[in-house]
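Hi,

I'm pasting everything inline rather than attaching a file, because the server keeps stripping attachments. The sequence lines come first, and each chain or strand is labelled.
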Amino acid sequence: MFTDARTLPDQTSLEADLAIIGGGVAGITLARALANSTISVCVVEAGGLEPDAQVQSLYEGENTGIDYSPSATRLRLFGGSSNHWGGYCRPLDAIDFEQRDWVPFSGWPFSIDELTPYYKAATEIVEVAPGRYNDSDYWQRVTGEKLPELATGRMRLQFVQFSPPTRFGSRYGDELKTAANIRILLNANVTRISASGDARAIKRLAIRTLNGLRHSVKARYYVLATGGLENARILLLSNNVVQAGLGNQNDLVGRFFMEHPHMGGFAEMVVADLKRMPKILRERVVAEGRPAKAAFNPTQAFLREHHLLNATFMMGVVGKYSADQLPDAANANDTARRDMLLAARYFLTDNDYAVKPGRADDIGVWLGIGGSCEQAPNPDSRVSLSTQHDALNLPKIKLNWRLTEQDRLSFYTHLHSLALEFGALGIGRLREMVADRSDWPQPLGGGSHHMGTTRMSDDPLHGVVDRNCKVHAVDKLYVAGSSVFPTSGASNPTLTLVALTLRLADHLKAQIR
Amino acid sequence: MTDGHRSLLSLFDIRCTRRTFLLSAILSLTAGGFGSNRYSLADSGPDPCVEPPWLWKAIADRQSAARLGQACLDAHPEYGHCHALLMDIERTLKRQSVSISPTADAEQTASALHHLLRREYAGDEVVSVAGWVLSKTEARLYALVYLVTTMDDPFSEPASG
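And the predicted assembly:
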């Protein structure tokens, strides 16, 4: 059942076994996992069923670090940020879960094995099943193109699978609407999680609407699932008992904010003969109804040997060069690419390598390279509360996203590996476009991936939540979503956060019974 | 002509044509005072750029390669000697156990270079040239093309590759 909180009588108090704050990917996944059970569920969603500028403006915030928009990188409506999700799916790598000596604050409380069965189920939910994320044989077979055997030991091929993308609100809304045990409260902004005097128990959720109403939801269990920025904000706003904010006794809430730094224009590749570069390496390929594209990732052995962070590179054809086309002498990049393609033609094409004019790409093509990388957990990269206030008179978030030299050097090392790999394969030549490696390539942005602000650790001194995603020192309050990631890996987070939420659902089912 | 140079001529079976002989002789006599390129005029004395026959098999487009070669020399002035470049290429081929018999033809040598380049990329034996990540031997080849192209003009023969 959907209920618009703006239409309820003022001061309405609702009750449920479980209150889920947030109707985005995590909240909907959790609600679905409990649908038609004996557990009554109230999903408290701040937005409505459609985008609304006034509602969305509640996501605006102050930014003091790397240029970043707290509002444009998330959506405040039912279905959450899945409404602008790109659909990239790939699990984290096994090494991402490990405590790595060279990555400060690394290590999940469990290994990838703990998540493996949930990844399988998550793959169904995001509609890419069965997952073939590292199955080169499969993609080779279904595409009919032999994939290169990488030669340097530095990189490996993985496969990103693309969700339609699943818009969780429209895809699963009806299912939740008809579930007898689920109520979805729309346009209901949780302004505080009210705790008992000793801050060990939650009394209720304080809710306000933009038309001035105040409601509350009382539950036996609570799950905070509002995304990596808002999860921290709501805990920090819930400071009626603990001044630093709920669950923030150790000053960890909001710290360790992580993104996947995304860069463009930092390098390009030229390829003279596309027959040497299977299509799945350069564009999305649909096989058996499943779109996928190859990604280049560092091998785990290389990461260990050189003490590096993880990364992902993908590429696509941007331009073609033909012998019939006059070189653009005024364009230095064009000249450079043509020169490289023609000079190295013997090494980059098969036996009969003379240019035979007639095709738009008879000389070759150039490819843009997209890269994203893991950033090391950094306590100074953080979300806190601003002195500015939103339309509900609540402090906005203040975001200070920071990266380290370790992050940058890792990225450049992997970029170099990519150049070596394509050279060793005889496929292409890579040109770095960054003049000064002491800085990040520009433009530098994120992937709208908000992670780490309520990080998971068995030790309350190092984590906001425990291995079950329960807030340390607060009973029956849990956090769902990528804010619990202790490290980010280099995979898009949606698949992993769905898997983690399914795991949380199993835990809650056992607890609530 | 040094022993090293003779060895290279033998290795790559360079045919000493009338024009290359003439060019070598002139360059030897003028001790670097002839020719337009600025990199061959080294302290070590004359450095005649006699083109090995495999060069135009491995390099399809001499103008493009020469432009890259110029960038190679800007970034790595130590590549400014034809003789040294050829010696380096020979040494590298031998060190990598790439087989080139003294009677190898241009095609065989170019093919051996192809494999050498791939090995160098795999082994991170690369240099940066105007942003391009190039295997060391590949960069030497382009530098060689630049030197040969700028020095043998106007005597150059049409590209055979």
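The CA atoms of residues 263 and 443 of chain A lie 6 Å apart.

If the labels don't parse on your end, tell me and I'll reformat.
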